[in-house]
Every structure is written in C-alpha cells, then in structure tokens.
Specification:
717 residues; alpha+beta; Serine Threonine Protein Phosphatase 5, Tetratricopeptide repeat; 6-stranded antiparallel sheet
Length: 717
C-alpha cells in the first residue's frame, strides 16, 4: 500500500507524515516501505542512507533503517541506529522499541519497552512494540522471572487482540501444572471504587491498564510520599510484581497486608506474594558439591559395581561421544542406601531404596588416571554417598582429586527430598500409593522444624507462637497448596495447620457473591452445591483455563450430580475432567463411556474420549472393545484434525502397530501387549526432592531414567 502524506509517520509519534518528517520525502519513504515489504532490505538501506545524507537524522528514516537492520541481523548497527534515533527523537515510541530489541540486559530492555509504551498513543501503537515485547517476555522467562514474564505475556496477547498465536502462548503457560496457581492468576489490582478514594490514583491506574506500568508506578510512588493509603500500597505492589521489582514489591505487599485483618485471605495472599518475590530475587538455597576420586582399576571397579545390589546401573545414560578430548563416562550408577529388593510383593516405604547420589565412571586417558565423579542427591549427603561407594568397592577407590560446587538447590526442596529408586517390576498403583503417603509424612514431620530464611531463620514451630508473625507460615502453606491444586483434587494441609495451631481456611458461600471477584487461588473453597448454573459455568471455565484441577473436579462433580450441564459447559467435558480422579479403571471406563454418549447427544465428535478410552481397554484386556474403538476412529473420525497422528502414534508406542504403518482401514489386530503398563499414566508420581522441584536426582540428570520419579511439589524457592 502506497504511503500518502496524510498517513501516520513511520516514526510512531502519531503525527501525519506531512506534519512530522516533511512531505518532500514521502515518495522516497514509500519506496523504502515497498522494498521492506518485498524483503529487499539492501535496496531499502541504500535509499535510507541517501535520505540520511540529504535530510539528516529524520525520525522516519531512522525508524525504517532500524527495521531493515534488525531484519538482516545487523544487530550492532541496529543498536547504534537506535541510539541515534533516541538522541534525535526521544519522544518516539519506535526509537524506544528499537532500543529494547537491541539491548542485551533484560532489565534495561524492559525499561526501554516501558518508555515505548509510555510514548505511544493508543490509537496508533507501533507494530515494532510486538517483537520488542516478545523479546522482553522471553528473556524474563529464561531468567526465571515468572510473575513478570506472565504479566508481559498477557500484555502481548492483549496487544495482539487475543489472536490465536498470543492466546496459545498464554494457554501453554496457564495449562502447565508445574506452575503454581498463585502465579497464573490475575493480580488483584485495586477496584474502581478503591481507586476513586485517592486523588491522582485514577490517572496512574489508567496508565497501568494500557501497559505503562513503570510510568504508573512512578506516579504512585509520588502519591505515597504524602498519602500512605492501603490502596496505594496495593497498586504499587501489583505494578512492582509486573515489573520484577522484587524487593520493593515485597515491601508494598507486606505494608498492604498489615492494613488487612491478620488472618484474612487478602493478608495471607499478600504475604505469599512477598515471599515468592523475595525467593525469586534471592533464593534460599544450599550447595550441591561434586567430588572426584581416583580409581586404581576401572574394569574391576565397574565389575564390582555391576555385581552390587546397592548400585543401580543406568543402561543408557544418553551422553554424546563426539568430543575425543572429553569422553563421556563409561558407566553411570545410582548409589542406593540399601540393596535393591528382589521381591516387590508387599513392598513398603521402608523397603524402597533411596538414591544417595550418582557415580560417573571415567576410564584412563592419556593424560589422566581413571576416576569417578560422585554427585549426591542431597546437599548434605556427599559423605554418605562416598562411604557407600567405598563399602562396595573398597580399596579400588583411591584418593580425592577435587571437590567443587556444581549447583544450588532450594533449601525447602532439599530438606523435604525423598528420592526413591523403584524396582522395575513395581506396579504403578503401588508406587503412587506409597509416594502419596510419604508426601504428607514429609511435610507434616519435617516442615514444622525447618529453619528458613523466610521465617527470619526460625522454624514454623517457633514463629507461630508470635501472633503477628504466624502469617508467614500461613502464606507458605498457601504457596504449597497453590501448586498442588493443579495436580491433586484432594491435597490439603489442614492437618498441618491444625498441628501448628493456625486457622483453617473456611469454605466460601457463593450465594450473592460475584464469582469474578474471587481469586483463582480461593476457587477450590467455593461451595459448588450452592451455586447457580451461571456461577457453576463460570467456575468451571475459569478453573479449566488456569488448570486448577481441584476446582475443576469440584465443579465437574456438581455438574454431573445435577445431570444437567449449565450453559457454556459440555457434559462430556465435565465427565472427562473426573476420569483421572477416579479410583478404579472400571470407574474411569464408565465416565469415558458416558462422555462418548454425551458427545453423540450434543452432536460433537467423541474421538478425543475414544482415544482416552483405548489404552484403558487394552490395559484391562478388553481387546474386543479396543478393536471396536480403533475401527470407529478409522472409519468415522480419521480425517478430523490430529486424530490420525494420535491414534497411530499410540498404537506404535504400544507395540501394536509397526513403525511406518498407519493407513486408514489397515485392520489392526488387537491383543493385550505383554507386560504393558498404563500408557496414560505419564510418570505423575510425586516424589519430593527430584529435579522438577529443583532438588536434582543425579540419576535422572544422567539418563532421563524414571526409576527415581519426579517431584510434584512446588516450593517457594
């Protein structure tokens, strides 16, 4: 499209070209924009250089030059151009966006992005703000700035007008069950009624609502100097959280909490935000050390390890062997605290061996003797791991070469860690039962006595004795629960609260309550039996969006009990949400069968539910029904998006169909595969202290082997 004199200038200030950068160069600018649209960047840069020589540093020229340089990956020149652009026109949002795109420091890039938003006019937001915002968002996530990253991600989605690409990224985040619910929920910005109580706050919040968070925060800081109203603290706390201002944000959250009733939800949640920001900024961690020991005879050592039932060999560690100067380890073994059981029948938690660490065996090299590296599973477990290896290998273990810190793990994760190595023959249901029991035992027994930085170096047992300080314990327990709500419908720490003598959160009566005012973190406490159909629909939809599994199950069960899905909710979806929560395969199959029938009644495709039913039928030995499902999928649903890939991928994974096959109508013959476990289980067994909770299991790090399980407890660090 041709650039006309009355069009907005490319510099982004919101003025027409003829009033901004001169009507004399409109034709040349049109030529440049056409070149850029046609990916003819060299031609565009040539024309722009000519314009710069003849007209000086015009904002429109510098704006287009920056785009062409960035598109051709000339980042150093793009940064220089952005500097010139800002010097020539500091009011240009495009200049600030270009600066953000070229800035390596994430903090500085975010500030430059904020200035770009501040200089932008809502009716003409420059397109360059989108890639600049994405660059900052990605950098924040890569650095572990989860609150700020998600805030920028939602802003990006809003800027794109909730386009599919933006919404998919938001959904990928909110659907991740490893991310605590308290991070995924919208922060409680002050209501319009609260804002109206303080002069000047309305203007600041209007900035905040359009993404000018830094500008809004600067205004509120000024207001706080003369007015310490709680609503100002609340607004400042939210904006600091958006911007990753952890220390200041924690202070504002605590000041706001102090203005609320001590045991109120708002106070506890505010303290939780403060703790999470502090731990994000300066985590409470312990060091994991690696020790290197010489080995007299690598072959003999390897044989001794293989023969020992206290060492568990990792058969395929997965190391690359493409660096002749740094060969991978010859063998990898998990060190157990006891011999691996020979029988799994009646196995209890006391019988399950725990990982003390991992041995990496390296053979003799030209310039180096044979050696082993030992990495413990717990921060304070190195000596125990060394002693266990020595008891197995005896004199084969030589002197210590080096000792070095390899990583840091959160104190809480390390303290609560339990690193089981399950016998391969162990039934998944038995694993889950044992791990579930251990989960609660660890929290109930160890947590009260743990001395934590969040508690000022004291334990929960000590701090709850101070009425004014017990909110710190309440907040930390809320953080624990905020993640488990995304995984476990029955998880609660009420017994621990009772032990510690702190109040148990009460159920919330939804009668005459606006559900939209209830934060996601509280939704699981809503009494769904008292909800209207509209409230039930709203609760189900919100819970599904943020993947609050506990709330979803509560709402789904009530929908099924009423035998009538509210408007906006499919009965099939409600039934499906209960499948993973069922206790037996029979119950799961019954729910799936009802979901299929509900889809057929509603005129929807039942294919997704048939795909979930198929592995269960195979696992329970119902080959006739499994064959029927495959036939139905192949004849009626195979052309639906993703069905073919999922069906044949599942069959190949189970060993029912050879790789490379998968044409519809293939007449797949079904028989129960020998020794097949539940293909839907996905390794969801909770085992505190493994890699997922930042307390690494060395065995898992080495090989991806699932024997040690994976932690499902997200902790504040």
């Amino acid at each position: 499209m041709a650039l006309e004199p009355n069009d907005f200038c490319p510099c982004g200030v919101g003025n027409k070209v003829k009033f901004c950068c001169s009507a004399d160069i409109v034709r040349d600018l049109d030529k440049v924009t056409r070149s850029i649209e046609g990916n003819q960047y060299a031609a565009a840069l040539t024309t722009l250089s000519t314009l710069e020589e003849s007209h000086g540093p015009l904002s429109s020229v510098l704006a287009l030059k920056g785009i062409a340089l960035l598109a051709t990956s000339q980042f150093e020149k793009a940064k220089e151009n952005a500097d010139h652009f800002l010097e020539a026109d500091p009011e240009s949002p495009v200049a600030w966006a270009q600066a953000a795109l070229g800035e390596e420091d994430t903090r500085e890039a975010m500030i430059q992005l904020q200035r770009a938003f501040e200089k932008s006019k809502m009716e003409s937001i420059p397109q360059l703000l989108v890639p600049a915002l994405q660059r900052v968002t990605d950098s924040l996530f890569s650095e572990g700035q989860m609150f700020s990253g998600f805030a920028h991600l939602t802003l990006q989605s809003a800027l794109l007008g909730n386009q599919e690409a933006g919404m998919m990224r938001v959904l990928q985040f909110t659907q991740n069950q490893n991310i605590p619910l308290i991070i995924k929920q919208q922060l409680p910005l002050p209501s319009d009624e609260e804002v109206a109580t303080v002069d000047g706050l309305e203007e600041a919040m209007s900035w905040g609502k359009r993404g000018v968070w830094l500008g809004a925060l600067e205004k509120i800081r000024t207001l706080i100097e003369s007015d310490d109203a709680p609503v100002l603290r609340k607004a400042a706390a939210c904006l600091c959280t958006y911007l990753g201002e952890c220390e200041e944000g924690a202070t504002h959250w605590r000041n706001y909490a102090a203005s609320c009733d001590q045991d109120s939800d708002e106070a506890i949640e505010s303290e939780a935000y403060a703790q999470m920001l502090e731990n994000q900024d300066t985590p409470d961690t312990r060091a994991i050390e690696k020790v290197t020991l010489t080995i007299e005879n690598a072959d003999a050592f390897n044989e001794q390890c293989i023969a020992s039932r206290q060492l568990h060999a990792i058969n395929d560690p997965g190391f690359a062997n493409d660096d002749p100067d740094n060969p991978p380890p010859r063998s990898v073994f998990v060190i157990l605290d006891k011999d691996m059981p020979t029988e799994v029948e009646g196995l209890t938690k006391a019988d399950v061996p725990l990982s003390l660490g991992t041995i990496y065996l390296f053979g003799k090299q030209t310039d180096r003797d044979a050696r082993i590296d030992i990495v413990p599973s717990k921060a304070k477990g190195l000596q125990e791991a060394i002693d266990a290896v020595s008891s197995v290998a005896g004199d084969l273990v030589g002197a210590e070469e080096t000792r070095e810190e390899v990583t840091n793990v959160p104190t809480i994760a390390d303290e609560l860690s339990w690193n089981p190595v399950w016998p391969r023959e162990m039934n998944p249901a038995d694993i889950e039962a044992i791990a579930g029991d251990v989960q609660m035992e660890l929290i109930n027994e160890r947590f009260p006595a743990m001395e934590l930085r969040a508690f000022g170096g004291k334990s929960a047992n000590e701090i709850v004795l101070d009425f004014d300080q017990r909110i710190k314990v309440q907040a930390m327990l809320l953080i624990f629960e905020s993640n488990m709500q995304c995984r476990d419908s029955s998880f609660t720490l009420d017994s621990l609260r009772d032990t510690l003598g702190i109040p148990i959160p009460e159920a919330i009566d939804p009668t005459d309550v606006d559900i939209s005012d209830i934060p996601d973190i509280r939704m699981s406490r809503l009494d769904v039996t008292k909800m209207t159909a509209e409230q039930l629909s709203q609760t189900f939809s919100r819970a599904s969006f943020v993947n609050s599994y506990k709330t979803t199950v509560n709402a789904s069960q009530e929908i099924v009990n009423r035998d009538e899905a509210p408007e906006g909710v499919s009965m099939a979806d409600a039934l499906g949400a209960l499948v993973d929560n069922a206790e037996t395969d029979e119950e799961r199959l019954e729910l799936l069968s009802k979901a299929v029938s509900a889809c057929e009644t509603d005129g929807r495709s039942p294919a997704p539910w048939l795909l979930r039913e198929l592995p269960l039928r195979l696992m329970t030995g119902d080959s006739a029904r499994a064959s029927e499902i495959i036939s139905t999928l192949e004849t009626k649903h195979i052309n639906e998006p993703g069905i073919s890939q999922q069906l044949y991928g599942m069959l190949m994974q189970m060993g029912i169909m050879p790789p490379g096959m998968g044409a519809p109508g293939g007449g797949v013959s079904i028989g129960p595969p020998p020794g097949m476990g539940d293909p839907t289980a996905g390794g969801g067994v909770w085992t505190p202290g493994s890699a997922e909770a930042d307390a690494p299991s060395a065995a898992d790090d080495a090989s991806g082997d699932s024997d040690g399980g994976g932690s499902k407890l997200w902790i504040p660090d």
